[in-house]
Amino acid sequence: MKMVNSSKISEFVLLGLTNTRELEIIFFFIFLLAYAAIMAGNLLIVVTITFDSHLHSTPMYFLLGNLSFLDMSISTITTPKMVTDFLRENKIISLWGCMAQMFFLHFLGGSEMTLLIVMAVDRYIAICKPLHYTTIMNRRVLTGSVLLSWAIGFVHTMSQMVFTITLPFCGPNVVDSIFCDLPLVLKLACTETYVLELLVIADSGLLSFICFILLLISYIVILVTVQRRSSGGLSKALSTLSAHITVVTLFFGPCIFIYAWPFSSFSVDKFLSVFYSVITPLLNPIIYTLRNQEMKAAMKNTMNNYLETNWTT
Description:
The protein is mainly α. The protein is built from eleven helices and three strands, in the order βαααβαααβααααα. It has helices at residues 21-51, 53-56, 59-85, 95-128, 133-136, 139-164, 182-186, 194-229, 232-260, 266-290, 293-312; strands at residues 11-14, 92-94, 174-175. Strands 2-1-3 form a three-stranded mixed β-sheet. It is globular and about 60 Å long. Residues 1-7 have low confidence and may be disordered.
């Protein structure tokens, strides 16, 4: 592919979820409330873990805080634009705005993918090697793991975007989705993109599928190990892992269908895109907090301390 200094088109048109004005108004309020809940729920988790010394020093909660930050970031890349577009007749995004959206989606998505693997390893060590847990999952290992997840996310997005930004776009500029993403944008290029499409499938689709399978295998290994040691510990392990398995399924499911099966119908792609950018970041704080008594107690203490501080001042 040749380098192109400028493209003949400077913007893309996003078709969004519907063309019906009444539905757009309804969707506006639904997704506005969803985004507010995403930011409030995940921000509360990040603040609670940051200011609670016990949670901050616990590996599981340290990783959970980073997961919540990634969820907020992923949703912010797509949801505000989608919400404001419900009020616009022409849903337009600039060429470089589209490129930036794709860059950060794959950057943050790749980072979260790796972080979920780190969280699975953390649960394996905590359940199967409890006596060595604090020694293995020390602060240096945790910090290095988080930095590694960000580095992998950056390599993941650059391996695709370095070729995408050089593509010429001179023909159709309509993206039948709620945000820019590689499978749909590549089809609009004025050149052959078959090899690049295969790269996207291999890089995003197969990587998501392989990581998902590896995570499920790791959870099965944990449950088998616990069952062999004691039957009573199996129910406790299931209770601990159920939240992680749910989050992994919610995150990897849409990724696999969007990228590993790029020839699915556009209506399915739109649904999965909403699920990935809105529903999953909304459900993560609910899954991890409503069933976690320690987290709920820490949140209550954080809120009480905040109210007492403001009340006394």
